[in-house]
Amino acid sequence: MIISFHYNIGNQGIFHNSIMFVKKALFAVPNSKSLPIGLVARFSSATGDIGVTVNDKTGVATVKLQRAPVNSLNTGFLKNIESTLDSLEKEKARGLILTSGLPKIFTAGLDILELYNCTTESLTTFWTQLQSTWLKLHATSFPSVALINGHAPGAGCQLAMSCEYRIMLGPKYTIGLNETKMGIIAPFWFVDTMIDTLGPRQAELALTSGKLFTSSEALKVGLIDEEVGSEEEGVAKAEAFLSQYATIPGTARKLTKLMIREKTISNLVKNKDKDLKNVIDLITSAQVQKGLGLYLQSLKKK
Ligand SMILES: CCCCCCCCCCC/C=C/C(=O)SCCNC(=O)CCNC(=O)[C@H](O)C(C)(C)COP(=O)(O)OP(=O)(O)OC[C@H]1O[C@@H](n2cnc3c(N)ncnc32)[C@H](O)[C@@H]1OP(=O)(O)O
To answer: What interface predicted TM-score (ipTM) does this complex get?
Structure first.
């Protein structure tokens, strides 16, 4: 017997900003002895789908990002990610596995179309949402694992670094903050996060060159914690990592995490406006707009 719950995760309209946990069906599955018992959810929108499956034995939620073709992060998708995290907090999830539902790509980072030909107003909306979503992910009360099952450049790497543990599918994909390669600069809170992850020496080398690491290079410098050969192996390792927290009191765990992350978090919280101004000044400059246009063209030409 499997108990299935569905929750509708609303966005962009009727269910805006809420996940409703609705017990929908109780049904028997023939010929099955040990099926997992879980909560299953999916929502769709023009700005991306997020599939959420909660294992109701462990309380661990698997969140699958799905915005074809490359899970690029635009305002709506970031908002959906934030709403999902809010709902998981509310429902007291015991852990998060953040992964991609698309083949080959974890996330391609920021949607460059949000940066190219933008207005100050649209960029403000976008960047403010990015700050807000990142703050939420970086400070979740539950433990988090990024299961990086595809490329993770730019903000894709930033999302992964904000999870507490990183498992990457090898050997084909790459991860890193590649902003300098694009002629732009990683914002200070990306830099802080990379320093927290790699230490200043390796962060400087990585950031100044905009290096995209293969999974084995990433493992060597500590950008990821484990490299796996299949998604199944990745899921098993993620579950094993999270299971260690089943016996650790949640509040002690959370406060310890926040203590360690406090400097990086409060640096952004205190300097949000300054960060936004930096971004507007840089991104709306003619030179950067030209560079972004060429970069977009090069992606399309492939
Ligand atoms: C004083 C201090 C000042 C500080 C100021 C701060 C300033 C702002 C900082 C901004 C920080 C930026 C962070 C970022 O995340 S930028 C984005 C980084 N990401 C990338 O560079 C990835 C680019 N994409 C790729 O490398 C490849 O697409 C990828 C490896 C991800 C997948 O390759 P694949 O071959 O599978 O797919 P395609 O390349 O053919 O792509 C398919 C279509 O998707 C489009 N695409 C790809 N990436 C993006 C993207 N990030 N945004 C929008 N669109 C993207 C691509 O053009 C293809 O489109 P078409 O189908 O139309 O051809």
So the answer is: 0.98
